[in-house]
């Protein structure tokens, strides 16, 4: 699985890839089962050769699509910088740690160095060349599920951590780095307007999938059911004889309508509510009979419910309000936020 991350620790635009993969290969053997063959970890020379190959392939691709122009002496970007509707100005300032907006536009972002500088030599599964870096030194054994979970949480963390975000007495936005830089930098400071510009530069383009699946764990893999504990996927032995409750025919992969998604997805996973279950008889006998999208019809239905169920303590429909009342006990959880 690959997660495309667009941000650095200082809220700078830094596109990089976090990849989870097996240290080996799974293939189907001759007797219908699967066999896993482990490979040894790469050495430093292997990493240098690999990052060199990756950097050249990326450069050739960017040149092929017209984003990079190359002449006899140097290479340069070919981007529509004068386009007023694009975010290239904000993205360029974010990449180069520059201030994008305000009277100090073009200057370096103000940083705070509270630790002594350190030198870090290249070693092991780490390589740097031509501005590209590659690291493959983090791994989890089969008997270390907690370590694998921490790794998954780290690579899927959000762009910003509220625990490390604060305001100074002078109205500046102060953001603490998750890991100090080698020169001792621990904090960066932005004006409120430039802070919004930094966040805007991190927004991915529309219709861009930032999570990619590949190999035997991909949803469309023929071997996924044989190598996963849930045995879900194509050719799953658990789903051979299962009958669909509503259609009364063998299970088959099908897409859900937009009306079915909140019923079977968000309501059950987030709120622990099964909308298909009747409140009185506790049976799964509730089904979608209509999809009402006309705003006038919706308003008529809501007015009727307001008349039938007035706003009282025993009312079926609660009154419309914004934040929850203090008398209710809500527990808020922030998943994948590791700023502490």
TrEMBL record:
| InterPro entries per record | Transposase_32
* GO molecular function per UniProt: DNA binding; transposase activity
Looking at the record's lineage, which domain of life comes first?
Bacteria
Q: What is this protein called?
A: Transposase IS801/IS1294 domain-containing protein
**Pfam families in UniProt:** Y2_Tnp (PF04986)
List GO BP terms, alphabetically.
Answer: DNA transposition
Where in this chain does the record put each Transposase IS801/IS1294 domain?
2-220
């Amino acid at each position: 699985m690959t997660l495309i991350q667009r941000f650095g620790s200082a809220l700078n635009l830094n596109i990089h890839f976090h990849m989870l993969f097996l240290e080996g290969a799974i293939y189907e053997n001759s007797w219908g089962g699967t066999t896993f063959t482990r490979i040894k970890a790469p050495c430093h020379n292997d990493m240098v050769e690999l990052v060199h190959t990756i950097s050249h392939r990326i450069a050739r691709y960017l040149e092929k699509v017209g984003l990079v122009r190359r002449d006899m002496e140097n290479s340069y970007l070919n981007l529509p910088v004068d386009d007023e509707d694009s975010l290239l100005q904000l993205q360029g300032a974010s990449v180069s740690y520059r201030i994008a907006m305000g009277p100090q536009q073009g200057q370096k972002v103000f940083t705070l160095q509270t630790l002594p500088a350190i030198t870090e030599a290249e070693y092991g599964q780490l390589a740097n060349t031509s501005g590209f870096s590659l690291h493959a030194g983090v791994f989890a054994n089969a008997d270390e599920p907690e370590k694998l979970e921490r790794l998954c949480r780290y690579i899927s963390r959000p762009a910003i951590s509220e625990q490390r975000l604060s305001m100074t007495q002078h109205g500046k936005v102060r953001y603490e780095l998750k890991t100090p830089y080698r020169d001792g930098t621990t904090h960066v400071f932005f004006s409120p307007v430039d802070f919004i510009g930094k966040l805007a530069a991190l927004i991915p383009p529309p219709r861009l999938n930032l999570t990619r699946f590949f190999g035997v764990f991909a949803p469309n893999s023929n071997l996924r059911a044989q190598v996963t504990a849930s045995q879900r996927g194509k050719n799953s032995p658990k789903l051979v004889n299962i009958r669909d409750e509503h259609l009364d025919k063998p299970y088959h992969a099908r897409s859900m309508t937009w009306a079915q998604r909140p019923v079977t997805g968000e309501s059950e996973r987030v709120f622990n509510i099964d909308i298909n279950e009747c409140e009185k008889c506790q049976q799964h006998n509730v089904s979608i009979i209509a999809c009402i999208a006309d705003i006038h019809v919706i308003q008529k239905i809501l007015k009727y419910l307001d008349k039938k169920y007035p706003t009282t303590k025993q009312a079926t429909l609660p009154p419309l309000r914004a934040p929850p009342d203090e008398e209710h006990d809500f527990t808020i959880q922030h998943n994948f936020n590791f700023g502490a």
